[in-house]
Amino acid sequence: MKIGIDVQSTTGIFSGLGYYTKNLIQNISRIDTKNEYILLSHDNFAGKLSTPKRIVWEQAVLGIKAYMNKLDLLHVPCFTPPLIRKCKLIVTIHDLIGVRMPENSLAFPSRFYWGRYFPNLSKRADIIITDSEYSRKDIIELLKIPENRIKVIPLAAGERFKPGKDKDMVQQTKNKYNIGNSPYVLFVGNIEYRKNIILLLKIWKKLRLPHKLVLAGSKTGYTDNLVRFISENEIKDRVLLTDYISDEDIVNLYNGADLFVYPSLYEGFGLPVLEAMSCGTPVIASNTTSLPEIVSDAGILTDPNNIDELQDAIVKVLSDSSLRSKLKEKGLIRSKLFSWERVARETLEVYNGIF
Questions:
Q1: pTM (2 decimals)?
Q2: What residues are paired with 188 via a beta bridge?
Q3: Fold observed for domain 167-335
Q4: Tens-place pLDDT, residues 280-312
Q5: What gap in Å lies between CA 318 and CA 283, rounded to an integer?
């Protein structure tokens, strides 16, 4: 069988979608010696695509390339398939943020793309892969896709996320981002409305902890809201807002943190939570959407709309070393249930079972 995979998300600076595609391809190539794989990309669209360019790629170039390569199966790992295709089609839908939370996409083209355009096209897939049971239910409810056409395959953190990193390397990374010798609480993720970071900033305004709050993630149009809040509330000396962080640095930041906090309002999976647990970092996460599936009892789950509940949990974990040790141990055990080999094997089963 000749299988094509859209790898456009692996160009430029990686996001979670790029890591998903890269890890899937690497691991599936290790276990599948029967099928032929063709990776579909276009040099003219290198780097992160704007919404108009993405539509051109997916609805014109990708379909033509699939046809010219005489594919039996096309897998689109990042949401939106081509309108016209002559082969079997599998699409990975990681979440329905654009449908559930259109306010998360600030520009009109993005709101239209994720809220209207993508949901209609996704119905054309023969099989949809998604990351969590929560997303499966969302797809059934919002896209009206029959349950038998949806396969849940949870993601994984990757081998580089592990505890016990060299202390000197961790300290070098802390110095690089102006953390120095201060203890810190970490958040990792794109700076978006749905990540609910404002709630963390409100807590840091109220509390006088020795810990800095490190917000590690790519800046977006929403970043200005955080910068304004930080300035108006005079907490600039206790909050560090980074931009994109390299793979090596982010692992070091996980390892150096006393606590990882993830108060997100909506997640199709919540990969940073799993990354933190894989590094042995105690986790507090929201008790909503897919996050309880990932964390289970290996972290503390709180209501993302209840500032007092999250604040109390943060204070409790930071003031109790035995609790931190317990959460670290449980997180490491829990994280071992997720692997990219499992993702690859279950995805290969979907490929082979589509005919």
A1: 0.92
A2: 216
A3: Rossmann fold (3.40.50)
A4: 999 999 999 999 999 999 999 999 999 999 999
A5: 11
